[in-house]
Amino acid sequence: MSTDASAPPAPPAPPATPTASGRARTLALVVILLASFMDLLDVTIMNVALPSLREDLGASPAQSQWLLAGYTLAFALGIVTGARLGDLYGYRRVFLVGVAGFTLASALCAVAPGAGALVATRVVQGVFAAAMVPQVLSQIQLMYAPHERGGAMAAFSSLNGLASAVGPILGAALLEADPFGQGWRAVFWLNVPVGVVALVVASRALPEGRAGTRPRLDPLGMLLSGAGLVLVLYPLIAGSEERPWPAWTYVCLTLGVAVLFLFHRHEKGLSAAGRTPLVEMSLFRLRPVGGGLLLQFLFFLPVMGFFLTFMQLLQAGLEMGPMAAGVAILPWPIATVLGAGLGAAVLLPRFGRVTVQLGLVVLAVGFLLLALIARSAGPGATWLDFLPGVTVGGLGLGLTVAPLAALTLEGIPGEHAGSGSGLFNTVAQLAASAGVAVMGTVFFAVRDSHPDGRAHGYVPGFTATMGAGLGLIALCFAVSFLLPRRSAPRSW
Description:
Blueprint: H1 22-57, H2 61-89, H3 91-110, H4 115-132, H5 134-143, H6 149-177, H7 186-189, H8 191-205, H9 219-238, H10 247-272, H11 287-317, H12 322-329, H13 331-351, H14 353-376, H15 383-409, H16 417-449, H17 458-479
Helix pairs in contact: 1-5, 1-6, 1-8, 1-11, 2-3, 2-4, 2-9, 2-16, 3-4, 3-5, 3-8, 6-12, 6-13, 9-10, 9-16, 11-12, 11-15, 11-16, 11-17, 12-15, 13-14, 13-15, 14-15, 14-17, 16-17
C-alpha cells in the first residue's frame, strides 16, 4: 500500500538514454500505472468493504484489524527488499512476479472460506505488492530521460489521489450491485482481470533493466524486523478482545522489543562492516531526519485509526448503506489533494515547518468536529452531516503530509538518498499497521463496554478514538519542533 504521505524508495541511477520511446513507451507507462492503481484501489476499497465482510464471515475485532494491518505490515517489511530484488534480477522480471502473485492472491482472497484464511491471503497480497510497487518508479527512471520524467511523475502522483477518491465509491457500488451474488468478494475479483491484462501487456511492453551495482539482500534483518514487529503488534490487536490483558501479551511485547533491539544491533553491524543494511540507522541521529521519521510514525497512528473506525461507525453503527458511506468519505481524499498542493507549493517555501504545524491544527479541528457530529448523529444521519468534519480533516492531512516529506527528506545526505526515502515510506506503512492495532483496540474496547449504548456502542467507540487521536496530534505538534524551520531552496 502506498500512502500519500510516503516517499517511494529512490530507484537507481537511470541510463544515459531512455530504453523505450513512442507508443511502446506510453503503453508501458500505462501498464505500470495500472498495476500501481490496482494496489492503491485495493486498500481504499477495503475500508468500505470491511463492515460487510466482517458481518458475513463473523470476523472478530482482532481479525478485522489484521485484515488491514496484515497487508500494510507485509508491504512495509518487503518494500525495501522488493526494490533491491529489482536491482538484482531486473525491474521487468520482478514486476511481473509481483503482478502475478498479487493477482493470484486477490483470487484467493475472493474465495477465502473464513476470516482466518482471508487474513493469510491479505498478507500474501502485501508481500507481492512490495515486489510490484517499487518497480514502477524504477521503470519510469529507465524509460524516460531526466527532462522527460515530469509528466510521468505527475501521472504517478495524480494516481494516488484518484485511487483514494474512486476506491470508496467503486467499493460501495460493487457491494450494492452484488454482482453474481458475490457481495464483498467482488472487490477482490475486480483485481483479477486488471492483473491479467497488466501481466500480458507488461510481458511485451516493458523494457528490461537493472541497477549498475548489485546491492546485497539482508535476510536476517528482514527476519528480525518482521518477528519483532509481529510480536509487538499481535498482543496489541489481541487486546481488542481480551481484557484485562493476559500474561502472554506482556511476554510477547517484551520479546518483541528485545528482537527489535537485536535488529538494531545487526543493522549497525552491517553499516560498520561497509555492507548495505536494510535500514541505515545513522539517519536517526540527524535531528531533522530522526524528528521527521518520528513525526511520520506518530502522525499516521490517528489517521489510520480514523479510516478503520469511520466506516464501522457509518455502516454498522448508524446503519448507512455502503454507497452513502462511500460518498461520506469522498471529500477526505479530495481535500487532501488540495491541501497537499497548497501546503507544498505555496505555504512551505514561505513558512517552513509552520506549514506542518498548521496542518496538524487543522486535522485536530477536523477530528473534533467529527467527534461532535458523531455524538449528535443517529440512524437517520446522512453524508451531509459529516461533510464539515471530513473536509477539514482531509485538508489537515494534505497540509501536513507533503511538507513533512519535503522537510524530512531534505535532511538526508545525498549518499543515503535512496535508503532514506525508502525508510520514510516504510515508516508510513509501519505506522499504518500500528495505527490499526492501537486505535482499533481503543475503538473495540469502548464499543464493547457500551453494548446497549447509542448505536450499539459504535458512537462512543468512535468518539473515544477521535479523543485518542487528538492526544496523538498534540504529541505530533511537540515533535514538529525537531523539523528545520525553513525548507531548503530548490535549484529547479
